[in-house]
Amino acid sequence: MRWQRTGISNVGFLKMSGSGLWPWLCAACVALSLLMLASLLTLLALRGLGHFWPAPLEEVTLNSGDIVIGQSVRETTLPKGAGAERLYFTGNQDITGSNWQWIAIDEISQQTEPADLIRLTRTPWGDFIGRLIAVESGDQRLTDQAAWAFIQDALALPVNQRAPGTLVLAAADGQTLRQPLASVTHFQTPNAMSWGQKTIAWGQRIWQFLSEGPRAANTGGGVWPAIFGTVLMVILMSVIVTPFGVLAAIYLNEIAHQNRLTRLVRIGVRNLAGVPSIVYGVFGLGVFVYGVGGSIDSWFFSDELPSPTFGTGGLLWASLTLALLTLPVVIVATEEGLARIPDAQREGAVALGATRLEMLTRVVLPMATPAMLTGVILAVARAAGEVAPLMLVGVAKLAPQMPVDGEFPYLHLERKFMHLGYHLFDTAFHGEDVQAAIPLVFATALLLVLIVLVLNLTAIFLRHYLRRQRGNEC
User: Fold this and answer.
1) What is the pTM of this model?
2) Helix, strand, or coil (residue 100)
3) Cα atoms in the Cβ-side hemisphere of radius 13 Å centred on 387
4) What is the Rg, in whole angstroms, of the alpha carbon atoms belonging to the chain?
5) Are 316 and 338 in contact (CB under 8 A)?
6) Euclidean distance between the first and the last CA atom of the chain, given in angstroms as a whole number
7) Which residue, 454, 444, 473, 450, is CA-closest to 226?
8) What's the rounded Cα separation, in Å, for the pair 237 and 319?
9) 395, 397, 383: which is closest to 428 by C-alpha?
């Protein structure tokens, strides 16, 4: 085995050359990591995006003569050779008391997919699955194609602009339900749709998931407030942590005397990166929320007390807490970049008559900019996925108001906000309907991964652009 020092930097990066076991082992580890990442993304995409595809509805006739209408979800084998059973999503919670029904395969005598079965989403009872009998609007009673056309035209308009109407529906057991058209949000006939129509409906449902607010205790609807809150908090965190981290790294590497105290400070900063995130949450709750926020309330918002304004969790305190959490990451990455700049660059600038400030701002910092962006990338990746500290300093299950609106000062730092990570946690563990929450958990997880990926790629492209512009490898 032969080892060769590359000379790329003074960090001491070693490169193996020649044949042997180690290159193959390293390549296998890289391949395994990429395979695991691809498998994770594939699983999230299949389970998350597949939820929005208009699945066919089945009409199942049991041996007892009962009829069940619903969407087949999955099938399991019973223990000790007792056969198998299938789970159906039947909807109609206001009629049957549950959205789900297990049916033994041996009890099924007939199974069909009639084209007239419908699936509509309504408030507040969720999905209805059954048949459309008629639409009543004023003195009119529309059936068949006239009723379908009336519904399609009405749902294309906002609720307050729709013509008054009532849907007359029939459930699987023959019960008749009268549903006001104003309470219906989506209407589908999946068995009668072509592949092209299903593809369009699939895209529309994904857009609705991204652009609408949550419903039914986060087990339905969209995640737009959580997307907005996550991105806004990450941007604020980056704005706060970047100057502090860069200035601290400059002081440690360029200004402070390199003695025992400096080394102790450097070791302390590196160890702060390993502190559990919930500890930062407790610190933010005690210092930012109760300490600083309580003082601000007593000084400037005493008229609002005892109702707190800044003395409770909010966007500002969450951003500050995560900035504190990610500060060691930015400091370490920036300092590594500064350390890789050859001393000859500094000495050359001083020899040409530059002051120390000019040497720092015009030679050292531009060369270290890619390293700073690397620190920001790592900070963004960690901040976007953190949940534990946010539960103490500002995140909410359902925020009634967005942190940004048209009311002065437009950006309301004291308001609570929604976060994709906490939304994922709440949907998975606190939802009333676990079966309905499972596909939304996969979809939300995929969205969170994609947002982190987009933020990181943006910083990575900016870093490579700056490297090409300045022609350095730091």
Assistant:
1) 0.79
2) strand
3) 12
4) 29
5) no
6) 29
7) 444
8) 5
9) 397
Cβ-contact 99, 127 below 8 angstroms: yes
Q: Dihedral, CA atoms, 62, 65, 67, 73, nearest 10 degrees? A: -10
**Integer angstrom CA distances of residue 372 from 137, 360, 460:** 64, 14, 11
How far is residue 300 CA from its own chain's centroid? 35
The two three-digit tokens of residue 111, written as one number: 């199974």
Residue 59's H or E segment, with its range, is: strand 58-62
**Residue 122: beta bridge partners?**
126, 184
Contact of 353 with 420, CB cutoff 8 Å:
no
53-57 contacts, C-beta under 8 A, 24 or more apart: 53/198, 53/202, 54/119, 54/188, 54/190, 54/193, 54/198, 54/201, 54/202, 55/190, 56/113, 56/190, 56/191, 57/113, 57/117, 57/119, 57/129, 57/190, 57/191
Note whether 421 and 386 are within 8 A (CB): yes
In degrees, rounded to 5, the angle at the alpha carbon of residue 254 between the alpha carbons of residues 251 and 259 is 80
Residue type, 290: Y
Per-residue pLDDT of the chain (474 residues; tens, 9 = 90+): 444 444 444 444 445 555 678 888 989 999 999 999 899 889 988 888 888 888 889 999 988 888 889 888 888 888 877 788 889 988 888 888 888 888 888 888 888 888 888 888 887 778 889 888 888 877 788 887 888 888 888 887 777 777 778 888 888 888 888 888 888 888 888 888 888 988 998 998 889 888 888 876 666 778 888 888 888 998 899 899 989 998 999 998 888 888 889 889 888 888 888 888 889 999 999 998 888 888 888 888 887 777 888 888 888 899 999 999 999 989 988 888 888 888 888 888 888 888 888 888 888 888 888 888 888 888 888 888 888 888 888 888 887 778 888 788 788 888 888 888 888 888 888 777 777 788 888 888 888 888 888 877 887 787 777 777 766 555
Rounded to whole angstroms, what are the CA distances from 315 to 14, 31, 287, 305, 413? 44, 40, 15, 20, 5
**In the numeric block, which tokens belong to residue 72?**
């087949």
How far is 344 from 87, CA to CA, in rounded Å? 71
**Do the Cβ atoms of 187 and 156 come closer than 8 Å?**
no
The two three-digit tokens of residue 109, written as one number: 């005598």
- Residue where the block lists tokens 């990451």: 329
The number of angstroms, rounded, from the C-alpha of 261 to the middle of its chain's C-alpha atoms is 42
CA distance linking residue 456 with residue 147, whole number of Å: 49
